[in-house]
Write a structure and sequence with these properties.
The chain starts with a strand and ends in an 18-residue tail after the last helix. Helix 13 runs antiparallel to helix 14. The protein has 27 helices and 29 strands. It is α+β, with helices and mostly antiparallel strands. Strand 12 and strand 13 form a beta hairpin. It folds into 5 domains: about 190 residues, Nucleotidyltransferase, domain 5 (2-Layer Sandwich), CATH 3.30.420; about 240 residues, Nucleotidyltransferase, domain 5; about 120 residues, no CATH class; about 180 residues; about 140 residues, no CATH class.
Length: about 950
C-alpha cells in the first residue's frame, strides 16, 4: 500500500480532532474532519466530529451493556463521550487532562498515577459504595496512547485500505511544550502504532487561517507596510499557548511574502479548567460553608460549573444557572445543596480575574496560592493578560506593535473575552490590532495540521519555523552545579540543519555512561560553540541527557565535538562525535537521549565523564593518587586474600580514609560513588568480624546516600539490595544492627517500589503488635530499634495503605512512649509532599487528620517533635486530594504560633509556599553529599 492521505491530529486537553486530505487531490479538495465513532450514554455509538480526551475504567456491568466499537479496544478503559459522562458521576474512575500531565515536572510520566488521588483512600469509609471496586490506573503516557489508539482504530475502520500507520500524520503539540514533553508525546503515538511529525498548535491555527484567507488575505495584512507582527493566542481547556509570527515582504518567497514564526511563550498550565475551578471554589463557599468538599464531590461541582460558564458567557447568556449537589450515600433522602451562579459573578471571576486590564510593562504576579485542586501545577497568576504582556515585552521593543491577533481555543468562543484581550493590547499601542477571522476553534488546529502536511509536499505555503529556543549543555565536573554552558543549537537555527559546537579539551571517557545537563533560552542569541554564563533569568533547565560511550570495559578517553539539530519531526537531536578516529575508522557518534525513564543501567563503574568546567571548581577533589590510596585501604580491610584485614584495621578504616581524603562530610558525590564501586565487590569479606560488618554498612550507606541523584545510582542501589537478602551475620551486635538499619534508610530513595515493599515484608514482624511471626523472629536490639523505625518510615514508595498501617502502630506507642523519633517517623509517613517519591504514594488526608488530632493533644512545649510532625503533615501542597481540612490546618497554625515556631512553618500550614532546596535537604535528616543538587518543585508552577 502507498501513502494516500495527509492526516492532522489535534490531541487536545479536552477534545481530540482528526482531519485529513487525499494527497492526490490536496489542492482541489479542502481537508475534512473525520467523524470518530464513540460510545454515548444509553449503550449506543455515534460518530462525532470530536473525541473527548477522557478515559473511564468501567465495571463489568457497564461494559457489558455498552455497544461494541468497530475496532479492538482495551476492555479496562472507555475513551470519549461515555467516559466523560460516567466520569462526572464516578470521578475516582475517570482520567481527564492527560495531556497536561505530560508536562508536569514533578511526577514520573511512566508511573500509573492516574486517576489522580484514586489511590489516596486507605479505608473503605473513604469511598462511596459504587466506588469501592478496585479500578485500574495508568500513566500519563499510557493515557495519551489510549486516546491516540482510539483515533487509530476509528481511522482504520473508516479507511481499511489506508491504515493510519502508512499515512503522513501530523500531530500537534503546544508550542510551549518542552523537549521532554514532545518526546513523551511521540512515545505515546508510537505506542498507539504510528509515527507522526510534530507541529506547534498556534502554527497549525495560522496554517488554517492562511488556507481560508488565501494569498489575498495574507497580502492584506501588510497594506503598504513592509512587515506585520501577528500574535496567536490559543486558550484551550488546559493551557494557554502564545506565539509571535512575522509576515514580511520577501522577493524570494511565494507571492513575494514570507511568514516566519519568531517566538513562542513558556508553558502556561492555565485555561478553561482554571476558570471552572474558580467558579467551583466560589460556589463551594455557599454550598459548604466553612468546609471543603471531598475531591469526588468537588469534581462533580466543577463539571456543573463548566456547563454554567458556557451558558453564562455565550452569545445569548443566561442571567443565572442553578447548581445542585446531592448528598453522599444512596440511603439519604433530601439534603441536596443548592446555589446559583449568576452572569455578574461569572463575569467578575473570569473576565476580571483572568482577563484584567494590564500594562505592557506588567509581569505575572508570584502569588502565594494557586488553583491546584487536582494535582496539576497550575500557574500562580491566573491573569492571562499579564502573561501576554510579559510575552510581548520579552520579544518586542516599544516600537514594534502587535498588528493582528489570531484567537484560537474553545475558551475564546466567548466574545466578551476576545473583546477584553483586544482592548488590553490596544492600550499598549497607537492603533488597535486587527482580529483575524479564524476557523471553528475546535477544528482549526487539526485542519491547519493537514495544510502543513500538504505544504511539506510542496503544494502550499510554509511558515519558516526556526528554533524558538537555543539549547546549551552545562559545563562542569561531575556533581558540580554548572555555572556556564556551551551553545549546541542556536536560537533561530534552521530546522534540519546540523550545528557543531567545538570546545578545546572536551573529552569523554570510554566504557562508561555519561550524563549532561541541558538548558534552553528563548532570548539568548549565541552562535554554536559559544560558552556563556548561565543567567537564571534567561536560561531554563531541561531534563538531563544520557548516553553510553563505547563498549563496557573499554578504556581511555576521546576528544569530541557536540552536534545538535532540530529534526524534521520536531524533536531535538544532540550527540557527541569523535574528533580524531583511529586510522581507517569512521568517527563514532554517541547520541544523547533524554533520561525519560532512568533506563541507563550499566555497571556501577565509576563517575561519568563530563565537559570541562569554565572557571574554578567549587569542590576540592582528591588527586587520583590519593583516591587510589583510599581504595588500597578498602582492599586492605576487605581484600579477598585470606587473613587480610584484622579487626583493628576495620575499626580504624574510617579514620584512615579521612586522613587520606579529608573529612567525610566533604567527600563530593563522585568520590563517594567511586568508593561504593570499590566497596560493593568486596561485600563477602564483611563477614570476617562484627567490626568488618558494621563499618562496611556505615560506608555503604554514607557513600550511597540518598540512593539516587547520580548517574549509575540505580545499578548501585540494586546491587546493594542483594545484600539485604543476606541479612546481618552478627545479629547480637547492637551497633552493627544499628548501622544496618541506618544504611538502608540512607539508600531507600534509590530502591523501587518492589524492593521497598520487600523490606516491609521482611521487617514488619519486628514492630507489628500482633504479627504471629514475631514469636519466631529474633526481635531487633532495643538500641537499634529507633533506627529500624526511621528506616521503615522512610520507605515512601510503599503502598499508602501499608504506610498508614505502620503509622497506626507508631501512633499507638506514642500514648506511653515520648521518644521524639516516633513523632518524627509519623511526620515522614504523613507528610503531604514526599521527599523523593511520587505524590501518589501519600496517605489519605482522613488518616493524616486522625494523626494530627492525636498530636494536637500532646504538650508541644514538652514534646517539640510533635510540633514538627504536625507541621509536616499539615503543610499545604495545593492539592485537594492531599491537603488536610482547613479547620485542622488552622488549629495546627494556632498551636505553632503559641510556641513561637519557625514562621516558615506557620506560613506553610496556612497557605501554599514553595519548598526550598534547604527544606528538601532537611527532610533527609542529614547533609546530602557535596555537589548533589535537587531542584525543588513548586507545586503551583
Amino acid at each position: 500500500m502507498t501513502t494516500r492521505f495527509v492526516v492532522g491530529v489535534d490531541l487536545g486537553t479536552t477534545n481530540t480532532v482528526v482531519a485529513s486530505c487525499p494527497i492526490d487531490d490536496a489542492t482541489a479538495e479542502p481537508p475534512r474532519i473525520l467523524p470518530i465513532v464513540v460510545r454515548t450514554d444509553g449503550g449506543v455509538t455515534e460518530r462525532r466530529s470530536a473525541l473527548r480526551s477522557s478515559l473511564y475504567a468501567p465495571i463489568a456491568s457497564e461494559l457489558a451493556s455498552a455497544a461494541a466499537l468497530p475496532f479492538p479496544e482495551d476492555p479496562c478503559w472507555i475513551v470519549g463521550e461515555l467516559a466523560a459522562q460516567r466520569g462526572r458521576v464516578v470521578p475516582r474512575r475517570y482520567v481527564a487532562s492527560a495531556k497536561s500531565w505530560l508536562c508536569h515536572p514533578g511526577v514520573d510520566h511512566h508511573q500509573a498515577i492516574l486517576p489522580w488521588g484514586a489511590r489516596a483512600a486507605t479505608t473503605r469509609e473513604d469511598t462511596d459504595e459504587d466506588e469501592r471496586e478496585d479500578s485500574p490506573s495508568l500513566s500519563p503516557v499510557d493515557a495519551s496512547a489510549k486516546i491516540l489508539s482510539h483515533v487509530r482504530g476509528a481511522w482504520d475502520s473508516t479507511h481499511p485500505d489506508a491504515p493510519l500507520h502508512q499515512q503522513d500524520v501530523v500531530l500537534t503539540v503546544p508550542a510551549s511544550f518542552d523537549e521532554v514533553a514532545r518526546e513523551l508525546t511521540l512515545e505515546a503515538a508510537r505506542s498507539a502504532g504510528f509515527a507522526p511529525r510534530l507541529l506547534e498548535e498556534p502554527q497549525a491555527a495560522f496554517y488554517a487561517w492562511m488556507g481560508a484567507a488565501g494569498e489575498a488575505g495574507l497580502a492584506q495584512l501588510l497594506e503598504g507596510a513592509e512587515a506585520a507582527r501577528i500574535l496567536v493566542v490559543d486558550i484551550g481547556g488546559g493551557t494557554t499557548d502564545l506565539s509571535l509570527l512575522r509576515v514580511a515582504r520577501d522577493p524570494v518567497s511565494p507571492g513575494g511574502i514570507g511568514v516566519t514564526r519568531i517566538a513562542v511563550g513558556r508553558h502556561l498550565l492555565l485555561g478553561g479548567d482554571n476558570m471552572d475551578l474558580a467558579l467551583a471554589m466560589a460556589a463551594e463557599t455557599r454550598l459548604s460553608p466553612g468546609e471543603r468538599l471531598d475531591p469526588g464531590r468537588f469534581s462533580l461541582l466543577v463539571s456543573q460549573c463548566k456547563a454554567a460558564k458556557e451558558r453564562l458567557l455565550g452569545d445569548a447568556p443566561d442571567a443565572e444557572v442553578p447548581i445542585a449537589l446531592a448528598p453522599r450515600g444512596s440511603a439519604l433522602v433530601g439534603g441536596t445543596r443548592r446555589t446559583t451562579v449568576t452572569r455578574d459573578e461569572a463575569r467578575a471571576l473570569i473576565l476580571d480575574g483572568f482577563f484584567p486590564f494590564a500594562r505592557r510593562s506588567e509581569v505575572p504576579i508570584r502569588a502565594r496560592g494557586a488553583l491546584v485542586s487536582f494535582g496539576l501545577p497550575f500557574e500562580r497568576d491566573p491573569a492571562i493578560t499579564r502573561h501576554v504582556a510579559a510575552f510581548v515585552a520579552r520579544h518586542s521593543d516599544e516600537t514594534e506593535p502587535v498588528d493582528a491577533i489570531l484567537f484560537n481555543g474553545g475558551v475564546l468562543r466567548a466574545e466578551q473575552l476576545t473583546a477584553r484581550m483586544v482592548e488590553v493590547i490596544a492600550s499598549w499601542q497607537s492603533q488597535p490590532p486587527r482580529v483575524l477571522p479564524g476557523n471553528d476553534p475546535d477544528q482549526a488546529v487539526a485542519l491547519g495540521a493537514v495544510a502543513f502536511g500538504v505544504a511539506l509536499r510542496g503544494r502550499g505555503r510554509r511558515i519558516e519555523s526556526r528554533s524558538a529556543r537555543g539549547y546549551y549543555i552545562g559545563l562542569g565536573a561531575p556533581g558540580d552545579e554548572p555555572d556556564s554552558a556551551i551553545c549546541v543549537v542556536p536560537r533561530g537555527g534552521a530546522e534540519a540543519t546540523r550545528f557543531v559546537a567545538r570546545a578545546p579539551g572536551l573529552m569523554l571517557t570510554l566504557g562508561r555512561p555519561a550524563r549532561f545537563d541541558l538548558w534552553s533560552s528563548d532570548v539568548a542569541e549565541d552562535a554554536a560553540g559559544s560558552v556563556v554564563a548561565l543567567d537564571p533569568d534567561s536560561f531554563a533547565r531541561i531534563r538531563p541527557l544520557v548516553t553510553r560511550v563505547g563498549a563496557p570495559g573499554e578504556k581511555g578517553e576521546i576528544a569530541v565535538d557536540l552536534e545538535g539539530e532540530v529534526t524534521p519531526v520536531g524533536s531535538l537531536d544532540l550527540a557527541c562525535v569523535e574528533v580524531e578516529p583511529a586510522a581507517g575508522a569512521s568517527a563514532r557518534r554517541f547520541r544523547l537521549a533524554f533520561d525519560l525513564r532512568g533506563e541507563l543501567r550499566g555497571a556501577a563503574d565509576g563517575p561519568p565523564p563530563s565537559t570541562l568546567r569554565a572557571g574554578p571548581r567549587s569542590i576540592v577533589r582528591p588527586s587520583d593518587r590519593r583516591l587510589e590510596e583510599a581504595c588500597a585501604l578498602l582492599e586492605k580491610v576487605y581484600g579477598k586474600t585470606k587473613g587480610q584485614g584484622d579487626e583493628r584495621d576495620a575499626k580504624n578504616l574510617l579514620r584512615d580514609l579521612e586522613k587520606t581524603l579529608g573529612e567525610r562530610t566533604s567527600w563530593p558525590t563522585d568520590l563517594a560513588r567511586q568508593l561504593v564501586d570499590r566497596l560493593l565487590p568486596l561485600a563477602k569479606q564483611r563477614r570476617r568480624s562484627a567490626d568488618h560488618e558494621r563499618i562496611f554498612f556505615l560506608l555503604l550507606g554514607f557513600c550511597l546516600r540518598p540512593g539516587f541523584g547520580y548517574l549509575g545510582d540505580e545499578a548501585r542501589a540494586s546491587a546493594a539490595f542483594a545484600l539485604f537478602k543476606e541479612k546481618v551475620t552478627f545479629q547480637k551486635d547492637a551497633r552493627g544492627m544499628q548501622q544496618f538499619w541506618i544504611a538502608w534508610r540512607r539508600i531507600a530513595g534509590g530502591l523501587d517500589e518492589a524492593a521497598q515493599t520487600a523490606l516491609r515484608d521482611e521487617l514488619d514482624r519486628h514492630l507489628a503488635p500482633h504479627d504471629p511471626r514475631s514469636r519466631k523472629a529474633k526481635p531487633a536490639k532495643a538500641e537499634a530499634e529507633p533506627d529500624l523505625i526511621d528506616l521503615l518510615s522512610w520507605l515512601e514508595r510503599v503502598a499508602p495503605a501499608r504506610r498508614a498501617e505502620l503509622g497506626g502502630w507508631l501512633l499507638e506507642r506514642t500514648w506511653t512512649d515520648r521518644d521524639p523519633r516516633l513523632r518524627a517517623a509519623l511526620g515522614r509517613l504523613g507528610a503531604r509532599e514526599p521527599a523523593y517519591a511520587s505524590a501518589h504514594h501519600v496517605i489519605a488526608p482522613r488518616t493524616a487528620e486522625r494523626w494530627v488530632d492525636h498530636l494536637l493533644r500532646e504538650k508541644w512545649s514538652e514534646v517539640p517533635a510533635a510540633a514538627r510532625a504536625a507541621y509536616q503533615i499539615a503543610r499545604v501542597v495545593g492539592d485537594r486530594s492531599r491537603d488536610l481540612a482547613e479547620t485542622t490546618r488552622a488549629e495546627v497554625a494556632q498551636r505553632l504560633e503559641a510556641i513561637a515556631a519557625d514562621p516558615r512553618w506557620i506560613e506553610s500550614v496556612r497557605d501554599l509556599a514553595p519548598r526550598q532546596e534547604a527544606d528538601r535537604a532537611e527532610m533527609f535528616g542529614e547533609d546530602l553529599p557535596p555537589g548533589l543538587h535537587f531542584q525543588p518543585i513548586d507545586p503551583a508552577g
